[in-house]
Amino acid sequence: MIKNKINYSHRKYVIGSIFILAAVVLIIKLFIIQVVDDSYKLSSESNTLRYLTQYPSRGKIYDRNGNLLVYNDAVYDLMIIPRQAKDIDTASFCKLLNITNEAYNNYLHKAQKYSMITPSIFIAQISKEDYGRIAEVLYRYPGFYFQTRSIRHYPMPIAAHTLGSIGEVTKPEMDKDKYYRLGDYIGKSGIEKYYEKQLRGTKGMKVLVVDVHNREKERYMDGKCDTLPVPGTDIILGLDAELQAYGEYLMAGKTGSIVAIEPSTGQILAMVTSPTYDPNELVGRNRGARYSELLNNPEKPLINRAISGTYPPGSTFKMVNGLICLQSGAINVNTAYPCDGPNSIPIKCTHYHNHMVQLYDAIENSCNPYFWYAFQDMMRSPRFANTREAYAFWYDLVTSFGLGRAFKSDIPFTVSGNIPKPEYYDRVYKGVWNAMTIRSLSIGQGEILVTPLQLANVAATIGNEGFYYEPHYLRAFGNPGDTVKFEKHIVNINKRHFKDVKRGMQNVFEGEHGTARWSHIDSITVAGKTGTAENPHGLDHSILMAFAPVDNPQIAIAVVVENAGFGSTWAAPIASLMIEKYIRGYVKRKNVEQRVLTINNTEE
Fold first, then answer.
1. Is the backbone peptide bond immediately before 275 cis, with ω within 30 degrees of 0?
2. Which of 208, 237, 266 lies at the terminal end of a domain, its last residue?
3. Are residues 272 and 309 in the same domain?
4. 232/257 same-domain check
5. Is residue 304 a part of any domain in this protein?
6. In Å, what is the CA distance from 559 to each residue of 250, 258, 299, 574?
7. How far is CA 571 from CA 460, 532, 598, in A?
């Protein structure tokens, strides 16, 4: 039986067709890769492309009158891609940069440790002058290029603590916000820190073609892959730059602070802490070294005493006590108490009245016995079941002035001070205590501690006759007309009581025996209260709070001069000069100004 032969000759056509089809597919794919789809071209040329971060212009900061407080200056970061940095003439490169060979190796090691292929900063913040000299020959050194950056500049060397500073971002900060990369700058304190997200803007990207000699040739695809940076938002503060500068001028050589508030808005007009420093000192490549010097300075210029310094308020606190006693019904404006001056017990008076004292005289003369008796009668008032209930009433009203708590606004790191809770005395005195036990509170001593910011806010609250806005720096973003509102607080005390206390406070400056009568200002009505806070570590602190004009206050102020004696002697003239400067725009009483400028913290 003979088998039929199978014809395989047609298969060669099938196999040939498969090869032809595969070849056509490959040709089409290569055409797409090389001609149509630019993403493959971008990938193939990655070694010759340079991706430059386009840093946005940081938002500028202005005062309430349009004065520029902070703007940007251009500087240049020398960048390195370690893998590309080969065959470098180290000697000539170090000479060009004016660095040692050891410094070069340290910078290189740091960059290599970060990444061999990702750009990082080799030397930061090179000046415009050095940039021009170096950029001209940088093509000789592969792997290095410049990136434009900006640093802050302060045309008026004031308000360092308020404005804050920027510095290089840390790893924890990068971990917290993925916006940042190594070498970026971030707000470190003050306004710069609190409003970082508004000020920083949004980064862009520029893609450049670079030849083998490290020279930039052109923008990749004519800039089609580039993204533009978005500038940061400008910020307008409630700060008055001239008033701030004047306050720092008056406080030179002294230790203490000044806080001025616009009562109708809660905006900070001035926040002076002394000693202070020029904010330009914490800018540039020497920021770290200069910060260390300030940190180790025995005078502690980095501390903002206006928000973190705590002091017994002394007699300035009598206004709060007087208002609460009036509200409790324990006293009225005609209630009179005896004063025997230095012979008074259990609390002595620094003034010898030798008569019965009523509210207006008690405020004008700062009579200790009056406020002790009023406090005692309130604590014993029949409207309360016991001392603890009376104290709880007192505590609630005191804290409603913003005392005993940290403010929740754009003023970072404010401290709460101390207003002792009833539980504190329960614990200390094992539940057995009364008005006599805590009598020091009646004149602002004992456990009470306040900050100058809180004291200025109390002055604003009295000036407003029972309300205040949370103290804050910000006035507006970008457009001066779009002001920002902060929380309004109401104090549960009848408005008529504020009017009575304001009358007494006006007598402090205008009355025959007013403790601040020597700081009276012609044609400007001022209401205030002096204080002398006991200090166990040296001379007493000189304190004053005030507001002006009395009927429609434009400014509320608190002044603390540490270790300077009576409030009437030192704090009162400083406050009156600040008030005159703000309301008039200039100071007529040059004799008062000259005297303030010549005092120091050791004079009595």
1. yes
2. 237
3. yes
4. no
5. yes
6. 11, 5, 19, 7
7. 17, 10, 14
Interior angle at CA 464, CA 461 and CA 467, nearest 5: 55
Task: Please tell me the distance from the alpha carbon of residue 373 to that of residue 378, in angstroms, as a whole number.
Answer: 9
CA atoms within 13 A on the CB side of 198: 16
How many angstroms separate the most distant Cα atoms in the chain?
Answer: 153
Predicted pLDDT at 31: 64
Whether residue 566 is found in the same domain as residue 443 = yes
The model carries a pTM of 0.85
In this predicted model, what pLDDT tens digit does every residue of 211-268 receive, in sequence order?
765 566 777 777 778 888 899 999 999 999 999 999 999 999 999 999 999 999 999 9
In a domain, 280, yes or no: yes
Q: Are residues 271 and 292 in the same domain?
A: yes
- From the list 200, 178, 175, 205, the residue with the least C-alpha distance to 188 is 200
- pLDDT exceeds cutoff 60 at 568: yes
Q: Which two tokens stand for residue 159?
A: 């308000």
> Is 300 inside any structural domain?
yes
Residue the block writes with tokens 């170090």: 94
Domain count for the chain = 2
Whichever domain contains 576, its CATH number is 3.40.710.10
pLDDT number for residue 249 = 96
Domain co-membership, 198 together with 338: no
Place of tokens 């902060």: 486
Tell me which amino acid residue 190 is: G
What does the angle CA 469 – CA 475 – CA 479 come to, to the nearest 5 degrees?
A: 145
Same domain (yes/no): 226, 251: no
Residues 169 and 111 in one domain: yes
* pLDDT, tens only, 362-411: 999 999 999 999 999 999 999 999 999 999 999 999 999 999 999 999 99
Which domain, by its residues, includes 168? 51-237
User: In which band, very low, low, confident or very high, does the pLDDT at 196 lie, cut at 50, 70 and 90?
Assistant: very high
pLDDT at position 427 is 94
pLDDT, mean of residues 557-577 = 88
Evaluate if residue 1 carries a pLDDT over 50: no
CA–CA separation, 92 and 84 (whole Å): 18
The span from the CA of 104 to the CA of 216, in Å, is 24
Last residue of a domain, which of 221, 237, 253? 237
Burial class (CB in 10 A: 0-12, 13-18, 19+), 386: exposed
Task: Indicate the SS3 state at residue 30.
Answer: helix
